[in-house]
Write a structure and sequence with these properties.
CATH architecture of chain A: 3-Layer(aba) Sandwich
Number of domains of chain A: 1
CATH superfamily of chain A: Dihydrofolate Reductase, subunit A
Oligomer: homodimer
Helix content of chain A: 10-25%
CATH topology of chain A: Dihydrofolate Reductase, subunit A
Number of strands of chain A: 11
Number of helices of chain A: 5
Largest interface: A-B, 33 and 33 residues
CATH class of chain A: Alpha Beta
Order of helices and strands of chain A: EEHHEHEEEHEHEEEE
Shape of chain A: globular
Strand order of the largest sheet of chain A: 5-6-4-3-7-1-8-11-10
Largest sheet of chain A: 9 strands, mixed
Distance between the termini of chain A: 19 Å
Strand content of chain A: 25-35%
Radius of gyration of chain A: 16 Å
Amino acid sequence: MGKIVAEISVSLDGYVAGPSPTLENPLGEGGDQLHEWVFPLKSWREPHGLPGGETGPDDELVAESLRATGAVVMGRRMFSGGEGPWENDTNANGWWGDDPPFHKPVFVLTHHAREPLVMEGGTTFTFVTEDLENAIEDARAAAAEQDVLIAGGADAIDQSINAGLVDELLLHLAPVLLGGGARLFDGVGPAVPRFEVTQVLESPLVTHLRYRAVRA
Amino acid sequence: MGKIVAEISVSLDGYVAGPSPTLENPLGEGGDQLHEWVFPLKSWREPHGLPGGETGPDDELVAESLRATGAVVMGRRMFSGGEGPWENDTNANGWWGDDPPFHKPVFVLTHHAREPLVMEGGTTFTFVTEDLENAIEDARAAAAEQDVLIAGGADAIDQSINAGLVDELLLHLAPVLLGGGARLFDGVGPAVPRFEVTQVLESPLVTHLRYRAVRA
């Protein structure tokens, strides 16, 4: 069985999106700075259907994460930005167009039931109206021997940690202060797991920090 | 002229002390985990008058920071835990006994005026009732060509960042989630400086992250 990995880019002050997010700018003010490191990479460009891109240690880390991942879990806002029923949602099929960059099963946490969406390129979106643990269980089954990636947002990651389900945290720490926004780990606790660092990879735009949950 | 360096140990979820701090346990619940990495080091033990200790990359980083520092600035609670006038304060001369581990001039931000305290071993405590910028200016004069260290708490560091005075951030990131407490960077913004990473040093108990403020 694979690991359950929570992976997200985060600012120095702990935000995964900046203040005042909108449908046009879902990452909030300054939030794009969290992801500047990833856009030039070959391993980011390729699944987005873009040619070329940088190789090197950052790229290899992302490529390895993609290779290891068999299924993805994400929150509703990360999927579409929407909050209401799907028929009101301008991004009802997600942000990514007809051929999303996942190319594997994606499980979306939502309060609004909906039939699965089969997209081009191997991405399927399955909508889970039960709790997070059910979504992770479904993703585990779909991932078989591979890892399940909890891709965000902050709430989904916090809940996964609180449920004791996260085996590994992979944080991409960007050297920016956002001064507000959606905070990672804000909903964690009161009982918190122990972690130990297993990898630190430095690069100019980001520090990658990998932690393993230590279970008694 | 030296740099102004803000240096502090911080949890993965951004706290510099845990929840429910008391005079007996000023670091709050779990807050001691933030500092476990430093206690075994020779460079920590020596200024505390203790023999022996570990050497190696962590130790060298701490030793280098101590060598570079000419004066220290800290908030009142970091000095004594107290909030009221000094005569009510059980740690009125600080937490550290007659021979504090600083061995250099320390400037304490406070609302309550007081004569300077000359301690054993070269530590002097000067109490600054004006604003943070005055305290930093006094520390700069005392440090001469050496660095000024803003040692905490979170408020003092946040204010220094907001005033545009921090040249360097040195974070000791401990792989723990505290789930509450005193949050670093909570008072930062809305205008936030840019930083770039200049050093990452990995060790089992902590990741040292050094950032340089980028000025236009």
